[in-house]
Amino acid sequence: MTQVTLNVNGKTVTRDVDDRTLLVEHIRRNLGLTGTHVGCDTTQCGACTIHLNGVATKSCTVLAVQADGSEVRTIESVADGDILHPLQQAFHEHHGLQCGYCTPGMIMIGLDILRRIPNPSEAEIRHNLEGNLCRCTGYHNIVKAIQAAAQTIAERRR
User: What architecture is domain 86-157?
Assistant: First the structure.
């Protein structure tokens, strides 16, 4: 067992974890933040995408002990109480989800895309979504949602 301290969604948390525990499992089991989903444990699907030190990261690729001292942001931190983030609202308005399993990871990668590319083209969005799989939507509405959120965020900045 190793003691791991993380800043998770703005709060410092310290827990003892087995050295082989994946960060996704630590987030879900030890911290009780179940919005981050386990889809494959092989980096294929992106359902476990979080932000690690400000960068979208598949949390099934990182051991919890490797993240010691890091800042972690999960889907639970995106809304401001009952007020949805513009990307979450756009997913709702543009039907960017069906079963919802991939949605937390899609939103977290979407936020990362918008951080890096404030006004992404459809091609840029599709390219940056390549590591996140959705078996239900066909991606069209996910792309529309990310573009709509980019527009909303840009309008709020004016």
Answer: Orthogonal Bundle (1.10)
